[in-house]
């Protein structure tokens, strides 16, 4: 697969941007209990829960991965609206403050069991060696496609090709 439209690079594609965003979100959360921005709005998360329930229902006890989990909202929606098992959920993000925020919100909401990890999804780590039944992202693919470096973009297209090849092989 070829990415034919390559968007202009933006700070939204840099780690330093997300480090700053989530450091601020952690401060806001501590000061005012504000859980912060849910990308594309609350309805988007609910739509994704509905999609997941139809295609990978919670009764099958799927292992779920949220790539670039931000404030953890998507996993909270899967747990609270979708009845997915939190002990089978992992949220990863390369911004440490995002993971700190997700953990704090989970504790405050009384949601236990989710594994939270600081991971760059392009790095080969023990986390990337795990396999999952359902891997979701909301806004992360968009952010990555705005990365200023050619290398990250190359990684992105290589991953899309791998996913495509696997899908074709099924
Ligand atoms: C637009 S935000 C979306 C956050 C969250 N998924 C939501 O829906 O609110 C993009 C997220 O992707 C994360 N991210 C971007 N590139 C990443 C990478 N290479 N590895 C891990 N996380 C990444 C950012 O830190 C940020 O949390």
Description:
The protein is α/β, with parallel strands linked by helices and 170 residues long. It has a single domain, classed as Rossmann fold. Helix content is 49%, strand content 9%. It has helices at 15-32, 42-55, 73-80, 96-109, 126-129, 140-144, 150-169, and strands at residues 64-67, 89-93, 115-118, 134-136. Helix 2 (42-55) crosses helix 3 (73-80). The longest helix is centred in the last third of the chain and has 20 residues, at 150-169. Residues 18, 38-39, 68-70, 73-74, 93-95, 98, 120-122, 138-140, 143-144 line the site of S-adenosylmethionine.
Main attributes?
170 residues; alpha/beta; Rossmann fold; 4-stranded parallel beta sheet; 7 helices; 9% strand; globular; binds S-adenosylmethionine
Question: How are the SSEs ordered, and which strands pair?
Answer:
Layout: H1 15-32, H2 42-55, E1 64-67, H3 73-80, E2 89-93, H4 96-109, E3 115-118, H5 126-129, E4 134-136, H6 140-144, H7 150-169
Parallel strand pairs: 1-2, 1-4, 2-3
The site of S-adenosylmethionine has 20 residues, from α3 and α6.
CATH superfamily: Vaccinia Virus protein VP39
Low-confidence stretches: none
Taken as a percent bin, the fraction of beta residues is 5-15%
What is the helix fraction of residues, given as a range? Answer: 40-55%
**Which molecules are bound in this entry?**
S-adenosylmethionine
Calculate Rg over CA atoms. Answer: 16 Å
- The tally of helices reads 7
Mean pLDDT: 88
CATH level-3 fold name: Rossmann fold
Q: What separation lies between the terminal Cα atoms?
A: 17 Å
The H/E string reads HHEHEHEHEHH
CATH class descriptor:
Alpha Beta
Class inferred from helices and paired strands: alpha/beta
CATH hierarchy: architecture: 3-Layer(aba) Sandwich
Number of strands: 4
- List the domain count as a whole number: 1
Major sheet description: 4 strands, parallel
């Amino acid at each position: 697969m070829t990415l034919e439209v390559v968007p202009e690079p933006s700070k939204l594609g840099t780690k330093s941007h997300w480090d700053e965003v989530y450091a601020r979100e952690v401060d806001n959360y501590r000061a005012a209990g504000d859980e912060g921005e849910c990308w594309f709005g609350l309805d988007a998360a609910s739509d994704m829960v509905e999609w997941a329930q139809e295609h990978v229902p919670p009764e099958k006890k799927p292992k779920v991965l949220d790539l670039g989990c931000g404030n953890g909202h998507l996993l909270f929606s899967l747990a609270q609206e979708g009845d997915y098992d939190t002990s089978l959920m992992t949220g990863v993000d390369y911004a440490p403050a995002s993971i700190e925020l997700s953990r704090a919100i989970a504790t405050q909401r009384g949601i236990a069991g989710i594994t939270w990890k600081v991971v760059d999804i392009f790095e080969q780590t023990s986390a990337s060696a795990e396999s999952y039944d359902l891997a979701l992202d909301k806004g992360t693919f968009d952010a990555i496609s705005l990365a200023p470096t050619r290398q990250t973009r190359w990684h992105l297209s290589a991953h899309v090709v791998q996913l495509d090849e696997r899908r074709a092989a099924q």
